[in-house]
């Protein structure tokens, strides 16, 4: 991660639209993510959360709109090591019997010069990443021997090893038991404290709720609400039971509860 206090938004999407198979899936998406922000993308199944994350990482092309990453127009952006992407957990379960350490080391590849042996800084970054997600003692174990929640943390460690400034996580808590969700929240909190910008997709925030500063709620391919998160525990600094704090952007009504 860079040490100078950054001011350029890591993500600036204006008028973003995505079509899949000719069908519009995202429309009129304006999203600026400030440095150091912790943003949750929420919304019902099929509302476009994963597609938005994929569009922001270039995995899905935009049909229209302009995207800048760290101030650079997407077409000119090449500094991919600044971006970490943690896909949905199923991608970790390939048939390859990799160890935890090997999987995390793979995340270091973008930093290493081709065909150079691993440096001590590579090894330190891998050890730090494993430490941060609480799996230092499992480094030699096969990924397949870990629980789903632990596998999710391996994927996060893999992204961490590349020392990116901006993290996208697609449903990091899906199918993860409560204890691992708490460990995950702790790891993401430490990441945030290091100055990383975090954008994650979630169905339920659970233990992540105290970390989330901004909720972007998707509905039918559009942003239906963008603002302080709603916490049902009543301990939020933003008392979301008051409607004035739930003012949705674009003047759209916020229908019902979040899913
Ligand atoms: N590869 C694809 N082929 C066809 N349609 C797709 C594809 N990926 C997404 N879609 C469609 O795009 C819309 C948005 O899907 P997306 O996965 O982004 O939603 P989501 O909010 O992330 O949902 P979930 O919470 O179920 O993951 C849905 O209608 C979905 O069917």
Automatic annotation (TrEMBL):
Q: Which UniProt keywords apply?
A: ATP-binding, Nucleotide-binding, Transport
Does the entry feature the keyword Transport, yes or no? yes
Q: Where is the composition biased (Basic and acidic residues)?
A: 225-247
Q: Where is the ABC transporter domain?
A: 11-245
Tell me any Pfam family this protein matches: ABC_tran
PROSITE patterns recorded: ABC_TRANSPORTER_1 (PS00211), ABC_TRANSPORTER_2 (PS50893)
Single GO MF descriptor: ATP binding
Question: Segment Disordered: which positions?
Answer: 225-259
List, alphabetically, the PANTHER family matched: METAL TRANSPORT SYSTEM ATP-BINDING PROTEIN TM_0124-RELATED
Protein name per its UniProtKB record:
Metal ABC transporter ATP-binding protein
């Amino acid at each position: 991660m860079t040490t100078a206090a950054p001011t350029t938004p890591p993500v600036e999407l204006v008028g973003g639209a995505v079509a899949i198979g000719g069908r519009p899936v995202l429309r009129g998406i304006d999203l600026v993510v400030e440095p150091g922000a912790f943003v949750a993308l929420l919304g019902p199944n099929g509302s476009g959360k994963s597609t938005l994350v994929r569009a922001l990482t270039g995995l899905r092309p935009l049909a229209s709109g302009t995207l800048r990453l760290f101030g650079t127009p997407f077409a000119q952006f090449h500094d991919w090591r600044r971006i970490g992407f943690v896909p949905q957990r199923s991608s970790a379960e390939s048939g390859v019997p990799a160890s935890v350490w090997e999987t995390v080391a793979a995340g270091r590849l973008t930093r290493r010069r081709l065909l150079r042996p691993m440096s001590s800084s590579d090894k330190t970054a891998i050890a730090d990443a494993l430490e941060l997600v609480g799996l230092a003692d499992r480094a030699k174990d096969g990924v397949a021997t870990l629980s789903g929640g632990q596998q999710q943390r391996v994927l996060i460690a893999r992204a961490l090893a590349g020392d990116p400034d901006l993290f996208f996580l697609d449903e990091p808590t899906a199918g993860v038991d409560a204890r691992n969700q708490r460990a995950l929240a702790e790891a993401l909190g430490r990441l945030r404290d290091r100055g990383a910008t975090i954008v994650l997709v979630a169905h339920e925030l659970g233990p992540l709720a105290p970390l989330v500063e901004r909720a972007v709620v998707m509905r039918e391919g559009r942003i239906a609400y963008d603002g302080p998160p709603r916490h049902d525990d009543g301990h939020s600094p933003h008392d979301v039971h008051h409607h004035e704090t739930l003012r949705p952007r674009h003047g759209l009504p916020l229908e019902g509860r979040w899913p």
